[in-house]
Amino acid sequence: MSGSHDHVEDETADLPLTALCWIGLGLATxxxxxxxxxxxxxxxxxxxxxxxxxxxxxxxxxxxxxxDRRLDIDLLMVVxxxxxxxxxxxxxxxxxxxxxSLSHTLEHRSMGKARRAVEALMQLRPETALLDGPGGVxxxxxxxxxxxxxxxxxxxxxxxxxxxxxxxxxHLDESTVTGESLPVRKAPGDxxxxxxxxxxxxxxxxxxxxxxxSTVAQMIKLVTxxxxxxxxxxxxxxxxxxxxxxxxxxxxxxxxxxFRALGHPPxxxxxxxxxxxxxxxxxxxxxxxxxAILSALSAAARGGVLFKGxxxxxxxxxxxxxxxxxxxxxxxxLASVTSIVALEGEExxxxxxxxxxxxxxxxxxxAAIRREAAERGIVPIPVRDARAHxxxxxxxxxxxxxxxxxxxxxxAAMGGVMPEALAPLADGAExxxxxxxxxxxxxxxxxxxxxxVTAAEALHGLKAGGRTDILMMTxxxxxxxxxxxARLGLQPGExxxxxxxxxKVKLVDAATQxxxxxxxxxxxxxxxxxxxxxxxxxxxxxxxxxxxQAADVALMAEDLRKLAAARALSRRAxxxxxxxxxxxxxxxVILVTGSLFFDLPxxxxxxxxxxxxxxxxxxxxxxxxxxxxxxx
Length: 632
Prior knowledge:
By secondary structure, this protein is an alpha+beta fold. The protein is built from 23 helices and 22 strands.
């Protein structure tokens, strides 16, 4: 059935053909065991079963042979049915085709269910939205909305596209996108995502992205691409299936001569060769891996975790070391200014300079400085030609000349020295940001960040999952990192401070000597470390196209507990794959042994073959139960 799971779009068309096949089989069975029927009707019934049960798999097999130069397993079933009919066992051949058709249909519908688990989000989109235009509020198609438009969100309404709150505040149910089980409060300036639900309040929201590039559109695109990317175990099962199928054909052909050499009549030898063909078919082996992978990918996506394919899913299950970027990952990123020291001029002017320069930065510390200025009613001084220097700071130009803000490394790069007035702040457990012109320091301010509420629990969950090492990496000074690490329950050896981007790559590289490494960050910064790690994880990226593209795994919500749950799901999927392979290979060995040495009847071989295939599909579908949302 190697081709069957690639044609989910035919799942509805399969049903009537399967029904006709079983009607034909039913009439033939009635004639054989209950009440004799006119011979013409019996032949017509058998012909109906063979046509409706045999033509679809034969068409698939010929398509695979012609276009992909692959020998499809479906061809085995058709050949076996024809062989049965040629030796007077047409009813057994009809049973084979009917069960094969039913298994084919159920598999399509089951695997289609796994694929549609995320695509169902498309149906949550409202068709219209309330546009707040110059002529008042009017109802317009959602497809007509463009960035900059303002829409009205009434209580109970779904958000039509990705927006930002412009007026009002209230709670939104984001479970459809992020998997967050509790309502999230939104205020002016906060982003809201398509397909989420406004629970209370009347909100005015400004459209930030159109329908084609929305959060849900990105999720579906990513999941569709992920399902097309085969995991190593999937590639092996495909490789095995192709070669084994050829071996089955050759073996069944040679078995006819072997049975003849053992004294069996030609018709019996052909019957037993057909039985061997069915018994040895690797349908269950080939479908066992994608059945588990697709189900796990869909379950994870519904819980707010997107894997970029089965390789990422399998990779996360094998991770030995989790390396975390500190700022914005283990911490909230919503730092606050705790003290300001202006060495030249007034404090308000100093803060205006700092806010003007940091207005060009997306770093969480920069956001804290901007918020402090806004709360004091200070207008940032315009700065141009801003340039970021990773792990150092930012430079730019204002009306008076060059300007910079950053840490001690930036100060050294500018040829300056730490003023005595700021030395106590530099030795403290809070982050010191210096502002200066060339080698002259204008002042400094301290910023403190807080650990995420879910971070400590998530780290404990990862360690509880088995032999796991944790690394916290940051460019901050050691006292700052130690303060956060202690609150997260980390040991001194797990905390690495004062790092440049290259240092993080070296740490990740060293960790790979002990096993696979996952690097967890924001998906935009620390690109080199994300690339070096075996599995890159971006968190809190609902609506962030850059972050979705940068990582192997994306956590749609800022809840690190989902990482531990996703790892547990990936390990569970690996276990189901092992179970499926054991079931399918074990069943195949039993059936082949029976057909070779114990005169196994063809109908029993059919039941064992199709039963094993359905069993591994259903076992894989157990992963559709969403463990990520249930545990967070």
